[in-house]
Amino acid sequence: MWPKAVRSLLATGPDREIVQVFPYRSAAPAALWRGLITKTQRDMVFAGYTNYFLWLEQANLGSALRQKARAGCRVRFLVGDPSSQVTADREVEEGVPLTLSTRISVTLAELEKLRDVAPIEGRFETGHVNLSVFRFDDEMIVTPILARRVGHDSPMMHLRRCQPDGMFDRFAAHVQELWSRGRDIQEVRADGTA
Prior knowledge:
By secondary structure, the protein is of the alpha+beta class. It contains eight helices and eight strands. A hairpin with a 2-residue loop joins strand 5 (131-136) and strand 6.
């Protein structure tokens, strides 16, 4: 129905959920992350194995998260268990001085500062060491972590939900599955492990 030239410029199939792609997460502008955090109203999930970079790249992230949680937004962090064998194996593969367990510890320390905000939740789950998914209502950042690479050196996709059971929903279901299997950070830390 539409001329071929128009169809080639418009995403009309399942790929229409892809807003932008970057060859490296570090190539994405910090303003993209801040914009997504700022406009999120209902559901924010940080399912990066360490989430470490967020605390460095986003000024006053703790304050922004506290405001969102107090306004009724559900805020969740899914991080790797720093004492797990999965983490230890990935640290060997990455071979960098700033280890995964150290980066996870930074996130845990920052989350500890937000403990007074009940809606901010955290869980340990090791099933996402090679995939980071960050949800902001109906938008998402997905980073598949490449072998022997750290997160900032891996490709990144910005997705926007446009259809049921599309890419967005599939990644969201993956994160929900990991969340359901995860162990609450506060419970684990209270019993002295992790």
